[in-house]
């Protein structure tokens, strides 16, 4: 019994040592946001383009903070800065209005070359998984398919974004369990109405009376992630077709999305073009020099 008690004490000590060390080791950005990164965000991230100048600066800070504290690793595939910015954007978008938020339950994002199966294989049969939040020995890890990551930001009409979907699962998991109720974001008085509304909408999916992705009908957990994708991808449509859902998602994410102008910029830059950073200088005298 003494040995067991000692082992428990050692385990608890190691756990809290690692926990507090991780908090203390959190890195905050100390450098300017690279101009080329800003151009990539403007080309690829509609949410970023909908923000005010000050909001964009905050978004950029959050991107840098995420990348400074989480590894992004390619598995049999090259990972470039565009991939990293898309992953970081997916993390920042759902928690954009929570300035103190930190993904303390995430260490690393693995980028796979394609969809994968339950054995994490990207070749062979039954490769239907586009992303997942790890559990068990994979705890602290997220896996994303690179094609799915890019598709989520290139398709503006399908109400799907795999990476945002997985980060919403991670938010759900912050209270210790993935159950469709993000207790860290959802005030208690909204919990019962939220569950009632989920059950109602899942029933509509089963009866084929809904435009919500059918995958959301598999469980409350998946419904929360699926409807979160819809909220950030097609908020105006969600507000029109599912006003109750839209309103409670505004409460959960603390964001009003329906009036945002979610557009992708087409940027053609020559040396004499106006610099996209809005400095008023020509590109050759601004970003081209800085980078």
From TrEMBL:
Superkingdom of source: Bacteria
Extract the SUPFAM superfamilies matched here. Metalloproteases ('zincins'), catalytic domain (SSF55486), Sec-C motif (SSF103642)
Which cellular components does GO assign to this protein?
A: cytosol
Q: Extract the GO molecular function terms from the UniProt entry.
A: aminopeptidase activity; metallopeptidase activity
The protein's matches in CDD domains, at most eight in alphabetical order, are given as: Peptidase_M90_mtfA (cd20169)
Pfam families, alphabetically? Answer: Peptidase_M90, SEC-C
What is the protein's given name?
Peptidase
- Source lineage: Bacteria, Pseudomonadati, Bacteroidota, Flavobacteriia, Flavobacteriales
């Amino acid at each position: 019994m003494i040995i067991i008690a000692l082992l428990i004490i050692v385990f608890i000590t190691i756990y809290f040592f690692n926990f507090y060390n991780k908090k203390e080791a959190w890195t905050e950005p100390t450098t300017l946001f690279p101009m080329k990164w800003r151009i990539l965000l403007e080309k690829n991230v509609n949410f970023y383009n909908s923000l005010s100048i000050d909001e964009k600066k905050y978004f950029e800070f959050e991107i840098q903070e995420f990348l400074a504290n989480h590894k992004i690793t390619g598995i049999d595939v090259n990972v470039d800065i565009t991939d990293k910015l898309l992953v970081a954007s997916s993390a920042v978008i759902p928690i954009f209005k929570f300035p103190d938020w930190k993904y303390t339950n995430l260490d690393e994002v693995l980028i796979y070359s394609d969809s994968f199966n339950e054995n994490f294989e990207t070749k062979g049969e039954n490769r239907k998984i586009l992303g997942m939040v790890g559990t068990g020995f994979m705890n602290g890890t997220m896996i994303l398919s690179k094609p799915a990551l890019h598709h989520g930001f290139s398709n503006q009409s399908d109400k799907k974004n795999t990476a945002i979907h997985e980060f919403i699962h991670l938010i759900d998991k912050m209270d210790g369990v993935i159950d469709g109720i993000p207790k860290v974001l959802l005030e208690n008085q909204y919990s019962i109405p939220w569950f009632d509304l989920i059950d109602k909408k899942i029933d509509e999916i089963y009866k084929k009376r809904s435009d919500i992705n059918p995958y959301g009908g598999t469980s409350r957990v998946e419904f929360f992630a699926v409807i979160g994708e819809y909220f950030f991808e097609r908020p105006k449509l969600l507000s029109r077709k599912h006003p109750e859902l839209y309103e409670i998602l505004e409460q959960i994410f603390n964001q009003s999305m329906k009036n945002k102008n979610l557009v992708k910029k087409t940027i053609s830059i020559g040396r004499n073009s106006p610099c996209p950073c809005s400095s008023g200088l020509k590109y050759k005298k601004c970003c081209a020099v800085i980078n």
